[in-house]
Design brief:
It is built from seven helices and eight strands, in the order αβαβαβαβαβββαβα. By secondary structure, it is an alpha/beta fold. The protein has two domains: 39 residues; 186 residues, NAD(P)-binding Rossmann-like Domain (Rossmann fold, 3-Layer(aba) Sandwich). Helix 2 links the parallel strand 1 and strand 2. The longest helix is centred in the C-terminal third of the chain and has 40 residues. Keywords: Lipid biosynthesis, Lipid metabolism, Oxidoreductase, Steroid biosynthesis.
Length: 230
């Protein structure tokens, strides 16, 4: 085989590998964001109770409502008792599910955990815990852990208005919970996955451009320095 033929073979092999990778990514996205909406995992199979922290506003409140809509009882955890009682009543009235509230401030550190554990003891529970590392650690024990990395969501914290680019908290929670059992890492919805991908490509291109500029600048400086000393 000539050198030209060898290079053509290597180029073709690389092209096939890239095509396979693209097809695999498309399939994973289709399964995660399209098929998951058609074949939703019954979250009650994880337990009768869902434990949601930050449950009085934003994404946490939206998750609590969506979990109740899907048939789970909800333990609401937050630091403001007045807001906890209001959200608990809203969920009970809208969805007819049981609720419990735990008033706690996580900024107080590990000292709060024994009290929280006491209030959760005896519940068959499904805890929202977002970490890809934890999934690898606990998978062998039959525990499913999902890492959720959203993009732009309209909440009190972000002060963003719902738009074609920004998801509402309720809509995001609905789509993100569809992916439970289908993926251990998710952006929550197809729109966010595309936005994150575009953002990563932009940063990669930006870093490449900066590196190229540095190389050009260094080369120009070296040439200029050589010219002056000759």
């Amino acid at each position: 085989m000539t050198s030209v033929g060898l290079l053509a073979f290597i180029g073709g092999l690389i092209g096939v590998c890239q095509l396979v990778k693209l097809v695999w990514r498309c399939w994973c996205g289709f399964r995660q964001f399209v098929l998951s909406a058609l074949w939703q995992v019954d979250l009650r199979s994880f337990g009768k109770w869902a434990v949601v922290t930050g449950a009085t506003s934003g994404i946490g409140k939206a998750y609590a409502a969506e979990l109740a809509r899907r048939g789970l009882n909800v333990v609401l955890v937050s630091r403001c008792n007045k807001k906890l009682q209001a959200v608990a009543k809203e969920i009970e009235d809208r969805f007819g599910r049981e609720t419990r509230t735990i008033q706690v401030d996580f900024t107080e550190g590990p000292s709060i955990y024994p009290a929280v554990a006491d209030q959760l003891r005896g519940l068959e529970r499904f805890v929202l815990c977002f970490s890809e590392c934890l999934h690898a650690e606990y998978k062998s024990k039959g525990i499913t852990v999902q890492c959720v990395a959203p993009f732009l969501v309209s909440t009190c914290m972000t002060s963003l208005e719902v738009s074609p680019v920004v998801k509402g908290a309720s809509e995001f929670a609905h789509e993100a919970l569809n992916t439970v059992g289908h993926s251990t890492y998710t952006s929550g919805c197809l729109r966010h996955a595309l936005q994150v991908r575009a953002r990563l490509q932009h940063h990669t291109h930006h870093r490449f451009s900066q590196s190229l500029q540095c190389i050009i600048s260094s080369s120009s400086f070296s040439f200029f320095y050589f010219f002056r000393t000759s």
